[in-house]
Amino acid sequence: MSVSHFYVSKRLREVNRQVKFALFSYGAHVTPQRQTLLSSRSILITQGDGEHHYNHVMEKGNPLHIQLKYLPVLAHQFKINFHRSLDAFKQHLSHCSSHHHSEYSTSSSGNADMDSPNSLGEAKKKDSLIVQLDALCKADPDDQEALHALEILVQEIKPSDDPEGLLLGASYLKLATVCASSCNENIFKGLSYAQKATEVYKNLGPSLKLATCFYISALICTRMGETKKAVAYLEESDSVMKRIKVTSCDEYCVALKHDVQSVMGEACDLFCNEMRLEIQSLFGTAKMQLGMHAEAIIHIHKTVKLKQKLLQAGSPDLGAFYLDTAETLRLLNDHKTATNLCSKALKIILKFYGSSSREEAKVRSLLSKIYCDLGKYEESLSETDSARKIWMQLGEVDEVISLNVNAERLLVRLERWTEAVARLDEVIEATRKGDNFHTIALVLAARVFLLVRNSDMAHSYCKRALEALEYQGPCSQTAHTLLLLSIQYEDRKEFDEAATLCKKAKEIFDQCLGQEAAVTAAELEGKLGCILMHAGKPEEAIPYLESSFSRLNCVPNQDLLYIHFYLGLAYPHIQKLKESVQHLEAAKGALSTSTNVSTSMEVAVHSNLATAYSALDKLDEAVECQKVVVGMLQKNDVKDYSLKEAEARLHYYIRELTLSKDRVGKA
Question: Where is this region: Disordered (predicted)?
Fold first, then answer.
């Protein structure tokens, strides 16, 4: 072989390598479906040209579902939505892909002309391998046969076929991508494939493919519930993106058409922004799961800026994105940004869909919730009524019912009692016994009448609510509403009614599944015991208090303070003085670890403990406890406690202690 022939072949081999690298650019840029922070809609997967709807994330047992279950109170409403929107790039992808294939074909032919027949056979085999890999990489993510075939084909790649490891890296990346989007055990394989792809691309410097490898690893870790690991991978991915040389999409395609070499080590700006959007969105999800809400908000703000770059201003997709993002930010208490995004979404929606559309109703419903959170009840009610009118025009009865129930809270805040009951009566008439909203509306109506001191009407609605419960299964929302009504009766010192409702709520939670429901049922047992104590029924209260204590004693729970206290009050009625002291001492100890404990509760614990010590002739301890009571009453006015009486009791304990010591001295 001549020297000139050697250099020509070397140049063709280099072009061959570059085209193989570019051939899988499509695979590098199409990332798996991320978890976004944006919506409570069903999950949407878009891969290639196909769309696949499924709801596996919210199934019981799914690691991500389990992780969501333990989010803070506001985040528990949050659901996961996987989606992709690469439609804007399809022309560029198609152009690039077709160019890659034609360029690679030319290069292969050139090699074959210059090499031996054996080399020609090897080149054809290599071409066939690449074509098969490319086809399998573009297969449907749910096509298990294609996935299995790709796994087998990867094993056939020889070092001589792929000296730089580009085919292998691209194949591993595709396998990881498919596994990350799967709803079965393949997700666990995905992390291994992503790590293998990472090892290949690490040697080639910062690239979109390397960033994608880290992103997929983060996505898989998130779905497996390993959120801290996910954050670490996302930081790696973000770091890579900051080091990539970015070229405008038009310049990228023009350069690629003329010379593959000119775009090696670069990345299209549109692809980069799409990848950054994926990273920031998953960052936000992970930070939410870790309870790092302030940081999550920062990442969500970044997704907004990136989405604005990727979508055309005024497009309906951008309006939908604004709405979904506003819903998430509301849950994170970023009401200012949420309101701003709702306004932008509404402007787009009115221009694109016109007035009285389903989309407008959704925005106004969310604005109503935001204004309610901010205490702007008039504005909230106005948005509720606007949304309600639209849903009525569209014939969406369920939405109208939901808004009527929500309107009750606003009307009560505004002390518009008659209107509140009227809205609830609409719900009652539009629903049947056994429907959750039917029962909830009856309970809320009873509560309104209690607030206006109309006991007869309150009892009437309450009776109807209890009858309606016989027609439906366990519902935690109904149970919470019953508990709310129970508290209203308790505040009015109607303890028998309060106990009946509390017991019914407890029975509902007893039927619900899950640890959270079990803990709530145990707490309600304690609450029921407390109500019975106020009703003057200590013997009836003790079994509920004891059961609650045994169920809650193994988990951190602030209700234990009150259970200890009321057991301490109840036990003397059945001659268990020592047990009474033990529980009151435990209540005293719990005061230091509990939050939001009222001064009256602190006074009650020390005062009753002093009495219990006195009954057992522990006068030293009685004196010390009573001194604490006097000290608190000197600084605070506490209902049902008199400083004068507390001081008199302290003097009595001191006198009894002195007499006791004198008797011991004389003996």
Answer: 100-119
The count of C-alpha atoms lying within 13 angstroms of the C-alpha of 27, restricted to the half-sphere facing its C-beta, is 32
Helices 166-181, 186-202: axis angle to 10 degrees equals 150
Amino acid at 543: P
pLDDT digits (tens, 9 = 90+) for 278-309: 999 999 999 998 889 999 999 999 999 999 99
Q: At what angle do helices 227-243 and 208-223 cross, to 10 degrees?
A: 170
CA–CA distance, 358 with 496 (Å, rounded to integer): 46
Straight-line distance from the first to the last Cα atom of the chain, in angstroms, rounded to the nearest whole number: 123
Give the pLDDT of residue 485. 83
- Two structure tokens written together for 219: 């996505």
Q: Long-range contacts: 424-427, Cβ < 8 Å, 24+? A: 424/448, 426/401, 427/401
Q: Which of 100, 101, 108, 99 is nearest to 9 (CA)?
A: 108
Q: Express each pLDDT in 319-364 by its tens digit.
A: 999 999 999 999 999 999 999 999 999 999 999 999 999 999 999 9
235 band by pLDDT with thresholds 50, 70 and 90 = very high
Q: What's the CA gap between 532 and 566, in Å, rounded?
A: 10
CA nearest to 24, candidates 134, 99, 158: 134
Domains of the chain (ranges, CATH numbers)? 3-299 (1.25.40), 598-667 (1.20.58)
* Tokens at 52, concatenated: 């696949």
Burial 31-51, CB ≥16 within 10 A → b, else e: bbbbbbbbbeeebbbbbbeee
Placement of tokens 């920062």 in the chain: 298
For tokens 């109309």, name the residue: 454
DSSP code string of 257-302 = HH-GGGGTTEEEHHHHHHHHHHHHHHHHHHHHHTT-HHHHHHHHHH
